[in-house]
Structures are given as C-alpha cells and as structure tokens.
Amino acid sequence: MSTEPKSSILTESGTNELEIIEFRLEKRLPEGGTKVCYYGINVAKVREVIRVPDTTDYPNAQPNVLGVFSLRGKLIPLVDLAGWLGVPTPSDVDSKVVIVTDFNRMSNGFLVDSVSRIHRISWEEVESPSQFLEASDQDCVVAVVRQEKNLIMILDFEKIIADINPELSMEKYDVTKDKRVVIDDAMVAKREAKTILVVDDSAFIRRLIENTLRSAGYNVITAKDGQEGLDNMIEFVRLCTEENLPISEFVDGVVSDVEMPKMDGMHLVKRLREIEEYKSIPIVMFSSLMSDDNRKKAMDLGANDTITKPEIGRMVGLMDSFVLNDKPGE
C-alpha cells in the first residue's frame, strides 16, 4: 500500500486555500476503551503513505525514533508520533500506517494509526489554537480545523523534527558567531534604526527568527498569522496618515511563513502589494515548503526572496541587502 497525495497544492497564487490529510491516533483510555484523536498535516508536506516497513535499529537514537528504513534508495527515520505526543495507542504495529514527509530538505516517516481523507479548505477556516495553547514555544499544535463534529489538530512538524534531531535544529544557529554576518557597532546601529515584522504561526519558529534578527540589531515585532500581520500593517498606514509620517517610522521589512491560520503567507504578500505604502517594502518568505514551484509563486506575487526553513543563517544577510541596501562583500 503506497498512496501518493493526488495534489501538491499549497496555495494557488494567493487564493488562501490548502489541502490537509486527516490522520488518526487511537488513544487507549484507563478503563480499557479507546478515543479517536484527529490530526492533520498539509498535503504539500507529504510524500506518500505506506504500510509499516521493516526497520533497522539506529544507535543512540532519540526515544521516539523506532529505527530507520529504506525507501526508494533513501534512509528515513521512523518516528513514533503517538509516543512523542504522549498518546498511548494500541501496540499492534501491523495495523498502523506511516506518513512519509518531505520538507525542510529532509524526509521522515511518522507512525500513525490510520489516514482517513483529504480536506480542501480555506485558510480562513483554519483557527489559531487558544491563548493557553500558544502561550509557550513548546506547544506542538499550531492550528485547529473544525470538520463535521471533529476538531482536527494541525501539528507543528518542524518543532517535532527539531526535537527529534537536535543536531539539525535551527536553535543551534548563533548569528553572533556567523562570520558571514558583520556585527560591529556601525552595522548594529544601522539595524537598530530598522523594524522587521515577523509573521509565523509557530511560537517556536517566531522565537528563533526574532532572536536571530534582534541579536544582529534589528527591532522586531511579531504576528501569529497572516491576518494579524495584515491588520498590523493596515494600522501602521492609518497612524502614518493620521500623523503625517513615513511608513518607515513603523516598519521596514517583513519576514513571513507560508502556512498559517486565517490567512496564509502567499495571500498576505498579495494583499500587502495592493496597498500603496507597501508596494516596495522588502518581503522575505521563510517556509519549510519552498520548492521551486512555490518559490515562483511567491516571487510572482511580489516577494523579494525566499528561504527554506533550515537556512536561518541566510536571514540577516538577506534583510541587510533589502532593508539596508547592504550587499554582501561591499
């Protein structure tokens, strides 16, 4: 059983739509019964769904890595997703399936109890989790989708992979030790005069981007989804008009994720480019799904450049080039 998603839709040039694969974990209850837990992942992150493969133990693997398996000539780790989430499920592995993902330039297999269907929805239907859930960057639920009588939890797979593969985590990046980035008094002073809006639904990723930009000197403001980001930018226009100020008094550049509740990053770029004050503001898309096709979509909509999420080391250099007009090597 090998099921490849029939569509690779992420967003069709800013239409604010996506497709998610709904999958399930059967939670064992203390009294002996089970409860179905519903989760989701963007189709664009899924390579295929397969039967549980034979695995080989991997030395010193993280506790929830069950081993590695070979698929189409590539070695892929198999992650016990229920174990990582702390959800006790039936131990009969033969009845389960594996979702093979491909994003952040790496492949992983996630063991789940079943995959049910694909939903095509608007990002407007994707809700942010409660304030309680998003209070910490340790939370792994980035969004919630209501379908029929069920709540589907959209998981932060970047966070999960960073936890399982700490050596590959962007948390290890320290801009102050990056010899490609100039951090002297003059450059820090230039950056301190500039403000960047960071838009990302993952508190974990928002913190990493904010820390990187702030460490280089930039002022940073944040928004947890495209709608909040757009609302902030519209409010800046209102204040500038009211006080007869240039827009640069409030914001000089934007870093945005693509996948976000309420409004995705592609649609955010499209909306910002329709506003006179933001027709030329630097916008960099920072996404785990930056394929050639999605990069073209982002650039066609008006983004200045794109970064694939592991490459956080490119962030400050790109913002310098667009916001400070400081080209590398000059």
CATH topology of the largest domain: OB fold (Dihydrolipoamide Acetyltransferase, E2P)
Shape: globular
As residue ranges, the low-confidence spans are 6-13
Counting DSSP E segments of at least 2 residues, the number of strands comes to: 17
Radius of gyration: 21 Å
Largest sheet composition: 6 strands, mixed
CATH class of the largest domain: Mainly Beta
Helix content: 10-25%
At CATH's second level, what is the architecture of the largest domain? Answer: Beta Barrel
Q: What is the CATH superfamily label of the largest domain?
A: CheA-289, Domain 4
Mean pLDDT: 87
Taken together, the total number of domains comes to: 2
Q: Give the strand content.
A: 25-35%
Number of helices: 8
**Lateral arrangement of strands in the main beta sheet:** 1-4-7-8-6-5
How do the SSEs run, as a string of H and E?
EEEEEEHEEEEEEHHEHEHEHEHEH
Structural class comes to: alpha/beta
Distance between the termini: 55 Å
Modified residues (4-aspartylphosphate): 257
InterPro entries: Chemotax_regulator_CheV, CheW-like_dom_sf, CheW-lke_dom, CheY-like_superfamily, Sig_transdc_resp-reg_receiver
Protein name: Chemotaxis protein CheV
GO biological process, one term: chemotaxis
Topology:
Elements: E1 2-3, E2 17-28, E3 34-42, E4 46-51, E5 65-71, E6 74-80, H1 81-85, E7 97-103, E8 106-112, E9 114-122, E10 126-127, E11 141-147, E12 150-155, H2 157-164, H3 185-192, E13 195-199, H4 203-216, E14 219-223, H5 226-243, E15 253-256, H6 265-273, E16 283-287, H7 292-301, E17 305-308, H8 315-323
Parallel strand pairs: 3-12, 6-8, 13-14, 13-15, 15-16, 16-17
Antiparallel strand pairs: 1-4, 2-3, 2-9, 4-7, 5-6, 7-8, 10-11, 11-12
Modified residues (4-aspartylphosphate): 257
Domain CheW-like: 17-166
Organism: Enterovibrio coralii
